[in-house]
Amino acid sequence: MAILNDLTVAILAVDGFEQVELTGPRHSLQTEGIRTVLVSARTDPILGMHHDKPGDRFPVDLTFLQAATEPGAFDALLLPGGVVNADEIRMHPKAQELVRAMFDAGKPVAVICHGAWLLISSGVIEGRTLTSWPSLQDDLRNAGARWVDEEVVVDGVLISSRKPDDIPAFSRAFIDVLRAV
Q1: Could you list the pLDDT tens digit for every one of the 181 residues in the chain?
Q2: Can you tell which superkingdom this protein's organism belongs to (predicted)?
């Protein structure tokens, strides 16, 4: 069983992430004493979104390249959604590499909303059960996943949710999985 204040969770995002899908779970993690590290394509601050309106800028701790060279430094990943973020991040080979390394190591990966596109591009969801924003269900099924419409789904160490309204249940499930590993 993990001691939570010894854990580090990498949060992968680029401009256009759904702000509450990063800040809500991150706050829950930090409240439990878990260290979070924001990882992006560049070290410039990234822009959150409130649906289709610009939100706040967030400082980046590491680049995908830096994080991918030491995936063992992280105990889990958090992948917020946001259509713009999810569409771009899936095109970054080092973000995909980091996702694959976490899955290969059996470490928890928590994904919400459109964030599952990165899992598809990383080739890690065949045979998995998960949920997402409803418009991704065909993409997920075509990639070999079983898609369900539930508030939160836990498939081993993969935790998924559909939308911002699910954040409280998503955060609780993520923390429960982190406690169990």
Answers
A1: 678 999 999 999 999 999 999 999 999 999 999 999 999 999 999 999 999 999 999 999 999 999 999 999 999 999 999 999 999 999 999 999 999 999 999 999 999 999 999 999 999 999 999 999 999 999 999 999 999 999 999 999 999 999 999 999 999 999 999 999 9
A2: Bacteria
From 50, 51, 92, 114, active-site residue: 114
DSSP result, 22-91 = HHHHHHHHHHTT-EEEEEESSSS-EEEEETTEEEEEE---EEHHHHHH-GGG-SEEEE---HHHHHHHTT
Tokens (6 digits) for 91 = 């095109």
114 is catalytic: yes
CATH number of 8-179: 3.40.50.880
Give residue limits of the domains in the chain: 8-179
